[in-house]
Amino acid sequence: MTRRQIPDTLTLEERAGHALNAMVGMADREYGGIPFFAANLMTDPANLTHGDWDFGSSHGRMIDGMILARHMSGETFGAETEQRYRDNLMSFFKEDGLSYRQTNPNYDWEPNANLIDQRAVILSLTTWFMATGDAKAKEAADRHVAALKRIAIKEREVWYYPASEYKEGGWPSANAAQLRLAPDPAAFCGRLVMPLLKYHELTGNRDAFELCQFFVALIVERSGVFNKDGSFNDALAYRSGHFHTRLGTLDAIARFGAFTGDASLIAFVEKSYAWALTQCTAFGWTPGDMKEQAYEHETCSLVDLIATGITLAKSGYTKYWGTVERFIRNHLTESQLLDLDWVRETDDRSRNVAGKISYTNVAASTRGAFAGYSAPNDFCCDVNHGRGHTNDLQICCLGSGTRGLYMGWSNTVTEKDGKISVNFLLNRGSKWLDIESHLPHEGKVVLRVHRDLPSLQVRIPEWAGFAKVRFVRERDGSATEGRGSEPSRWVKECFLQLNEAYAGETITITFPLSERTTVETAIGQTFVTQWRGDDVVGIAPSGTKHPLYTGRRVFDEAPMREGELRRLENELVW
């Protein structure tokens, strides 16, 4: 890394450093370091609360998120908190290999191995082992995968879980298994495929692959989660078409299809993904479900949308690179809590109840977190529909938001068979080249090449056209110019083919910016949205609690700052 003048524009690794602050700050020092689950920022003072998600789910997401954030940003603070999260996670395992929710003196839930929790547990163990090679993490993961296989109800072509919670004595009802009462297969089986598949890729674990194989068959062939036209089944038994679990399942199936070379699975996912986009805004707001929670956008859902779009784009649906970049530039980063002047907080501890609620230093603890339930135009959702105002922050969204940053960062520049592809026009350092993005101020991207590259291509936004795209290549004191209108310059519709590139070369690409207005619809509400390139620079009506998209300033030339773009020789591939 070298410090120089770089554009003062969106840099995802810096956002990861802010997220790390929240992942450290959410730990409850008065309750064994167990993280708070939710925050209400609209009370005076704001508060943090615990819940039954505190255990495998929250710890798994924090461990995964902290590892990815450190890898992106190079930040080292909070190591003691991260170690406490890891120690806590290991303490939740019982002899059967599953992770169990613990008792809490303030609540009356029973200890159980919740199937949604298990997904976050194997996710964290996989990232932990990937990053460190820690034998303890692998041992726990192997036992965990074996347990997930052991408790699955197995039929000839599909496996499933007949309840949402498993207890030490077994499934609560043998009759549920006999009647094939698999509750919400997407939530309890489909989303498990993503981390299980990665664990299989890393270790060759056959149990993990078998679970993926039979769970995917369950979803695609038998479950009814997705309708024939790709839409989500909105029946109550299917959680009213809950977007986070459906999109997370699509992400998982797309990855499995890509891994196995099954084009039919990729086509299955693309059909549902295309339908899902019709329910979302172009800048990335998603419904919570199709009924009671429709107005409650989760950052988790958006990150699933980002991850699925990336896999589809890599599989040949290249139009989704642009879709995903709009999501990253807008609702993902806009949903990160960086300005806390509006949050009312206190340093008083007298009203705190250990293990239940805290009113102390909430703003400082949550800086860098992601919205739990946001409106299209407001960090806080307080509409007159659905459930009204609920949580403003949720720790699942903090973990997912961090993972969303990582998916954008790690897929900005990719390599396959010697070809380097610049997929997102975001600031990014890499071992091959650095990207300096002047967007949204100017239609300008500068590439600084570090190594000889046999083939280089750069995605140009669809709104830029091709006739006015220009590039200048400078090397060893000489410069050559090229145009997007030249024959044979374009591949896969949106990639500008630059062919060979050489160490020390600087390539400057320019194109006209698009300024336009669209009307976005979110569950019957309309928003007039102003765009500059792929960035939303204004939205009406404006939010009333903590308005989004109101502080984005645009200049004729991109402001510059001294900085560095992080380069890693080996990156964690998720």
Automatic annotation (TrEMBL):
Question: What Gene Ontology terms for biological process does this UniProt record contain?
Answer: carbohydrate metabolic process
Query: Under which name does UniProt file this protein?
Result: Beta-L-arabinofuranosidase (Glycosyl hydrolase family 127)
Organism of provenance: Cohnella xylanilytica
